[in-house]
Design brief:
single chain, about 260 residues, alpha+beta, 6-stranded antiparallel sheet, two-stranded antiparallel ribbon, 3 helices, about 15% helix, about 25% strand, rod-shaped
């Protein structure tokens, strides 16, 4: 009887305890795992499994466009440099299948075109990826045989300077042979045509200046007409102006003579 009573009491106690524990609500999760950079990543780099890791992020501060699975990022290209441990967002990635390197940095609907440059054309080596320029060309035509300079493109973004595609503040200015611009398809045609007609120059502008100016082409005659008239040199103090010599011709009958005077 004692054994049976003990079994009954223990069964009742176990049932009561299970009901008591099950009545408490489950503890809500305080963090969520997001895929992040496993090391410092450069722009244009192809994401691989070894370059990613999962990080805990507060649920109360959700990240729009973040990834909860690292496998979803493998094969994508980053558009901007990422610090180690920074969660990777959709807006920081090139479209799937766009490729690595420079092609991954070209937005949808845009084109990249390279133009030959030198120290003068490249604004003394101050062209870096991300700077804004105007494209100016000097050319001759059948209708205008004199040299004419015209602005063919305004507010163009430099996509790459030489082989450099990422802005680097530690890099000193240097002349490059080729400058790659990011253009619309119709502007790319204008740039190619301008490069075949004359001399190309880049005009550096403030990156915050996005205005478009209506600038008319200027010819050599306009440049000369706008130059100030040359000023005759003034005689030095203490010197007398020299008189110009003159000649007098005398005719007497069949005789003729010329006399010079100072």
């Amino acid at each position: 009887m004692a054994l049976i009573l003990a079994l009954v009491v223990s069964g009742v106690f176990t049932y009561w305890l299970s009901r008591k524990v099950g009545a408490h609500p489950a503890v809500a999760a305080v963090s969520v795992g997001y895929a992040a950079a496993g090391r410092a990543l450069d722009a244009g780099e192809l994401l691989k499994p070894e370059s990613l890791r999962m990080v805990d992020w507060p649920v109360s501060v959700p990240l729009k466009g973040a990834f909860v699975k690292a496998d979803d990022l493998v094969g994508r290209v980053v558009l901007f440099p990422l610090a180690e441990g920074e969660p990777v967002l959709e807006r920081q990635l090139a479209e799937a299948g766009s490729g690595a390197g420079l092609t991954g940095k070209i937005p949808q609907g845009m084109r990249a075109i390279s133009l030959r440059s030198d120290e003068v054309v490249g604004v003394a080596g101050f062209l870096f990826p991300g700077t804004h320029v105007d494209v100016v060309v000097t050319y001759r035509s059948e209708k205008a045989p004199e040299p004419t300079t015209a602005t063919v493109l305004q507010d163009v973004v430099v996509l790459a300077a030489g082989h450099q595609i990422n802005p680097d503040p530690d890099v000193k200015q240097a002349s490059v042979d080729v400058v790659t611009l990011m253009l619309k398809p119709e502007d790319a045609n204008r740039a190619v045509l301008a490069s075949t007609q004359g001399t190309i120059h880049f005009v550096l502008r403030n990156g915050a200046d996005r205005g478009q100016t209506d600038m008319k082409p200027i010819g050599l005659s306009q440049l000369v007409s706008s130059a100030p008239d040359p000023v005759a040199p003034h005689p030095q103090a203490g010197t007398k102006p020299q008189a110009k010599p003159y000649a007098v011709e005398t005719v007497l009958g069949t005789k003729q003579s010329v006399t010079s005077f100072q």
